[in-house]
Every structure is written in structure tokens, then in C-alpha cells.
DNA sequence: GATGAATGAGGATTCATTCAT
DNA sequence: AATGAATGAATCCTCATTCAT
């Protein structure tokens, strides 16, 4: 059910474990993933895994931490008051997630099972993420015709278009017979995001973007 | 961890089981839900549950079946060549899901764990759903400036704005301190959808909406 | 390592489990006893055991509870201000423990590992036991030449002569090649206790015994 | 759960290990003690421990050996035909055990779990100990009114009053709110032993005390 | 002598499921 | 239709021990 992954050859043991865990947690969720499978995929005995991580839960959090850090950094540096919702930011996020779609699935799993043992992580990660995003949005030029209480909805829309998109990319791709992760598809999604942004927030309808 | 739900008092035993299962599957996913907890929440002994459903898997599918039928029907009757992506359809879906947000979470769980023992269900439910929606979209008047290969992206966007929205409503509501399920919030979301639709697909840029 | 015990045939399942557990806990202590061995000795699958007791710890406490109750009752009814430390009490305790020497070992295990997860039980059982015993002792006629702060030492002496004796009976019996549990040996120990009591607390040195 | 003990600073590594092991074995018994905890308490990695002792079992036996030697020597040199059961012997044992109460607990653990992998040790240590003690007792002057088959019972009594006393000192002290290990308490126990001996074996009933 | 990493065996416990009542 | 009791398989994790460094 889980054979040693080829990509993680030269890396350190903890990294191999994190890779294996990330893939399986993303695919099956926390409860659906057996420690034994993570171990097998890392080429280890399950017991060895506990030399590197204290528990399944701790491993899960390490996976999340490692995955979230770059996203956090992208959000951090992107507090610039540029173009509408910061097309550069959207582009970078899209690029990053297209490279590690597991991450998007992990985050969506988190969001779905919210109430449980991970709500703290949501508080720790998602909330500041939204705080920053809100701040960025408010600096955006043309918010004219959105009500203040529609802002969170706009934000969620972007959340869906980025995280939701890549979280469902693989599954939906299979069902629809498409590939949402090819470089071309990623370019298309980036272009799509720009177009959507232009229409939702963008330049005055009479002028150019 | 799971006490008998008050709302399902007068209903039949299978319905009480389905209610309990729906809530727990939505909250914790398939793997994260224990049959014993479903039984407890239904006021039953775990063994009794097997008088009504053949297995956990069968119960899960029954939950999905029961939940999906009304959605399927909404989609069915809404193949009318009306206004942009059929605002009435969007409104009905929104209304329905706001009443049973569990369903939205279930569907998103399905979408996330795609590969597994549920892919068949995705094929059975999601694919026709998308087929219908695509058909509906293509009948929409102003698709002028969207490329053909952007259509699935538009579709996904609507999927997110409907299913993703209500799937994350509870969790995100907690984190952001908002209530996305109040009647008022549902009205706002419906209005928001209309606005988004108007901008994405709607009225000629020179005319009115 | 543990074959179904013959003595516990007709009894109820929980009782069979308690019997098995008592024997093994007495022999090997809490940490040294495997749930699997208790199950085997009860003629059960380890999982079945959890239909009757919540955990190993809970089972252990049930064993202790069941074993302590009769002792507690003996102590209860023996608050009579009779002869020196109530020879009848000593006799009854001796008789009882000689019939279930496991109990004595269990109590000594408890006393030895004191600090741990069982200290609460010690507080619950041993302390009142000592309180009662102290009260009884103080009513004893000839305490003349014992200092007040020697009372606990006298108490401990009796604790040893009763509980310690039967706790070590089997092991020491093997080493010394004697049988401390035969009816005759029990009578001898009872006589011995009376003699010791006579000398330690008993009758005036000049008068009768 | 086990932090490096302060007292064993300057000592050699094997001694530090023996100290840690003695404390933990005394507290939790053999089965209840994890090699890892011994290592931690010795300030070592579990693996390092195996540079000094072949196995957990070997370490346990080394602890017992080290602890028993002085007792053995005390018993050895005390075969003198002095006063009733050799008050000096009792005093020395009491003094020694009050200084290392762990030892008393260890011995009682041994006595309790008799049947197992330690019975050989009992044979090796306890039996000669009793042999010597018996010899010593028989040289005692006033055994007049004890039957020959009561001798082992007298012996056990002394065993309890010495080993049992210090084995339970800490635990019982906590429950009763007393300190049985303070110098004063040790003096009191010594005095108590003398008094008991006087009454059980001592001076002619008609003469002086 | 010390250690980080590895492991097979076994630890307690939970799981979904069955069956006699 | 309901349940208490039973169970094999699997759960996460700890154990004592080994070995290359």
C-alpha cells in the first residue's frame, strides 16, 4: 500500500519521514494514515520513526510546520500596496502550491476537520494569514462597490481559488480527465486568477487594468 | 465524545443513524469516525447498527446518497437556459447547503481523499454534476472572453464558492469570529454570488447588469 | 505462561477475569503482568477483557477493591474493646489471608511501590485501616510501658505479622522447604500471634496470661 | 520522569548506573523499571549502559550483589553467642538499612515476586542469610518456651521488623504523615527492637528486664 | 566510553464486525 | 429490532538491545 518513494533518496532521515508523512497525510488525512505506512514509505521500521518524532501527532505538526513556513514567508513579504490583490502574491502562491500540491490538501484537511486537535494550528496559521490578507486587500485601490462585510467573502474566494484549487486538482483532474498540475495548466490558472481579479477588484470598468 | 442528538427525536431508527453518521463523517471524515460513536449518537448499541446497514462503508454511502439526492435534483431541474450561470440555481444550492452544511463538508472530504475507496462515488456523483453544470454554463450568454479551456476553472470556482464555502463555514467562522450560517449571512453570500457572477460572466461591460 | 485456571469454572466472566488478574498481579506485580496473560488465564481474547473492565488500571483497582472489602469488614466489626489487640481480630485476619494469600501479596506490592499510581488507594484503604487499628490498640489494657511514639511501630509489627507473613509465605516456604499455608501451619501462626501478643501487650507479668 | 541524581556526582560511571538502577528498581520493581529511565538518571544514553552491564538482568543482579554484600558481612561477623538474638546484629542491620532503605525495598520485591527469574537469587542470598540467622538464634539463651517449629516464625518476625520495616518506611511514612528514616526515628526503632526482643526472647520473666 | 539510529518483539488498547439471546 | 459478549486484525507506541560511528 506504500512503497519507498523514489524522490527522497539522498535526503536525511527526518526529511524522508516528513516527505512520506506529508504525502500520506495529504492523501488520507490524519486519521486515515497509519504510522506503519509512513514508516514503510520512509524505508524504516515503525519504531525507528519514534527516534525522530515524538508521536504521530508531533510528526503531523512538523509536516504542517515545514509546509506552512514558505507560505507564511510569501505572505509576509507581500504586504506591498501594489496592484489589485497583489497579483504577484497570487502568482507566487500559485507557483508554490503547484509545486507541492500535498500542502494544499493538508491545509484543506485541516480546515475541514477544524474543531479537533488542529484548531490551534488554524489559529496559529490561518488567522494571521487572513489578517495579512485583509490588510493587503484594504490597501487595494478599487474596492468601491464591495461592502465591508463582503470582504471576508472575497478573501474566502481567494482562499478557494488558491488552496482549494490545488487541493482538488489531482482528484478532479482524474474525474474530469484533465491535468491541473502541468506547467501549462499552472500558467493558465495564473492567467485565470489575474482575469478574475481584474473583474472583481480591478481597474475601473472604463479604463485599462 | 458523542451524545444522542436532540434534533432527531421522533424520526425512524435508520434516519437517526443517518443523521448521526452524517454529522460525524462530516466532522471527522470516514477514517476518523468510529462506528461506536455513530451508534452512541444514535442512542444505539454498535451491534444494532448492523441491523440497518451492512457495514460502515455501506452506511457512509447511504449518507452520501441521501445527501446528494436533493442536490442532484436541484441540478437536474435547473438546466434552464436563463441568466448567467443561472442565479436561481446558485441561490437554491446556497439555500440548501446552508441548511445542511454537513453535506458540503462531506463532499469536500470526498474530493480531498479522492484516490481511495470513494473515487467510485466521485465518478458517480461529481462527474454528472459537472457535466450538467458545464452544459448549463455553455448556454450562458456572455462567455465571450473566456477561453474554452478556462471553462473548467470557472466551474471549479463555482464549486468552491458553493461547496467550499459551506464546508469551511463553521471552522473559518470560529477562527475569524464570524457566523457564516446565519440567515443574514446566507443572504449576503447569495448576493455576493450574484455580484461575482455579474462581474465574471454577466452583463455587457458597457450596459447594465 | 498462563493456562486457564481450573478453579474458576462456573463463575461469571468478570469474576473469572478478576480471579486471573488477582493471581497474576499478586505474583508479578502490576507492571510485570501482561493483559494478554490475564486474558489467556480467563479463557478470553484480550479484546474481550475490555468489555468488562475499562483498562488494565481499572481492572487492577477492581481486584484490589474486591480483595480489600472483606478485610475492611473484618476491621470494621472488630472495634470491640476486648482482650489485647483483639485476638479474635488477629485470628480472623489470619484465617482470611491464609485463604487468599494473593491478597496479602497484592497489598505488599502496593505498599512497596507506594509513590506511584496507587498511592491514592493506599490513602483510601490503608489509612483508615491504621486509624481503626490505632483506636483499637489504644483501648488495649496494658500499654503501660510503650511510649506513645512507639504505637505506630507496634502497629507496623502487626501489619508485618499478618500481611507480610502471608505475602512471603509462598516464596519463603519454597526457599526454606516449608509450607506456611497448610491448615496446621495457619493454626501454628495463630498460636504464635497470640503468644507474641501476650508477651508484647499482654497480661501483667506477675499474673495470668 | 527521572532526572540525574545529584548525590552521585563524583563517582565512577558504573557506580552512577548502579545508584540509579538501585533507586528505580527499589521504587518500581524489575518489570516496572525501564532501562531508558536508569540511563537518564545516570546521565547516559541507554546504549552506553551496555558498555558497563551486559543486560538489564545483569544490572539488576549487580545491584543486588552490591547491596547484599555488606548485609552478608554483617551477618557473617555476627555469629557471636551474645545477648538475646544479638542486639548488636539487629542494631547494625537497622543502622545499615536506614542508610540505604532502597535495599530493603529491593529485597522485599524479591521476596514478593519469588517464583520468577529471581528465585535463584533468593536461594543464593536469602537462604544462607536465614541459615546463619537460625544458627545465631539457636545459640540464644532463653528460647525455652518456643517450640522448635516456631523458630522460623520468630525468624520471619525479625525479617519483617528489619527488612519489612525499612521497605515500607517511605510509603507508610507518607500515608501516616511520619518520618521513619530520620536519625531519631532510627534510634527509636532500634530501641523498639530491643524492647521486643527482651519480651520475646529476653530475660527471665521473674527477674529484671 | 559514548551516542544516534535502527529494530523485532511485545505493550495496551481500539476497531469493525459477528452471533447467541 | 436490540444487545452484551466475543474476537482477529490493526492501532499507536515502548521495550531492551545492537551496531556503526
Could you please describe the fold and organization of this structure?
4 copies of one chain form a homotetramer. The first copy, chain A, has helices at residues 13-28, 35-41, 46-49, 56-77, 87-99, 101-112, 119-139, 151-176, 183-200. The N and C termini of chain A lie far apart (50 Å). Chain A is mainly alpha-helical and 209 residues long. Mean pLDDT of chain A is 81; it is low at 1-8 and 204-209. In chain A, 41% of the residues are buried. The longest helix of chain A is centred in the last third of the chain and has 26 residues, at 151-176. Chain A contains 9 helices and no strands. Chain A folds into 2 domains: 1-53, Orthogonal Bundle (Arc Repressor Mutant, subunit A); 64-200, Tetracycline Repressor, domain 2. In chain A, helix 1 packs across helix 2 and helix 1 packs across helix 4. In chain A, 67% of the residues lie in helices and 0% in strands. At the C-D interface, helix 6, helix 7, helix 8 and helix 9 of C face helix 6, helix 7, helix 8 and helix 9 of D. The structure holds a DNA duplex (21 and 21 nucleotides).
Quaternary form: homotetramer
Number of separate structural domains of chain A: 2
Mean of residue pLDDT values of chain A: 81
Query: Number of helix segments of chain A?
Result: 9
Largest pleated sheet of chain A: none
Distance between the termini of chain A: 50 Å
- What's the CATH C level of the largest domain in chain A? Mainly Alpha
The CATH architecture of the largest domain in chain A can be named as Orthogonal Bundle
**CATH fold field value of the largest domain in chain A:** Tetracycline Repressor, domain 2
DSSP, total strands of chain A: 0
Order of helices and strands of chain A: HHHHHHHHH
Shape of chain A: elongated
Share in helix of chain A: 55-70%
Strand content of chain A: under 5%
Amino acid at each position: 500500500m506504500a512503497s519507498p518513494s523514489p524522490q527522497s533518496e539522498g535526503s536525511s532521515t527526518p526529511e524522508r519521514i516528513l516527505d512520506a508523512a506529508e504525502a500520506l497525510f495529504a492523501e488520507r488525512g490524519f486519521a486515515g494514515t497509519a504510522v506503519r505506512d509512513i514508516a514503510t514509505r520512509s524505508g524504516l521500521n515503525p519504531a525507528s520513526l519514534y527516534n525522530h518524532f515524538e508521536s504521530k501527532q508531533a510528526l503531523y505538526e512538523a509536516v504542517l510546520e515545514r509546509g506552512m513556513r514558505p507560505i507564511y514567508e510569501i505572505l509576509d513579504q507581500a504586504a506591498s500596496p501594489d496592484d489589485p490583490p497583489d497579483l504577484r502574491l497570487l502568482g507566487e502562491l500559485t507557483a508554490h502550491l503547484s509545486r507541492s500540491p500535498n500542502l494544499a490538501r493538508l491545509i484543506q484537511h485541516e480546515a475541514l476537520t477544524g474543531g479537533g486537535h488542529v484548531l490551534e494550528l488554524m489559529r496559529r496559521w490561518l488567522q494571521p494569514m487572513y489578517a495579512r490578507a485583509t490588510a493587503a486587500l484594504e490597501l487595494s485601490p478599487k474596492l468601491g462597490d464591495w461592502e465591508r462585510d463582503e470582504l471576508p467573502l472575497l478573501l474566502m474566494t481567494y482562499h478557494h481559488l488558491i488552496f482549494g484549487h490545488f487541493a482538488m486538482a489531482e482528484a478532479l483532474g482524474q474525474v474530469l480527465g484533465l491535468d491541473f498540475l502541468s506547467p501549462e495548466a499552472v500558467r493558465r490558472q495564473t492567467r485565470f486568477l489575474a482575469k478574475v481579479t481584474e473583474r472583481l477588484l480591478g481597474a475601473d470598468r472604463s479604463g485599462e487594468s
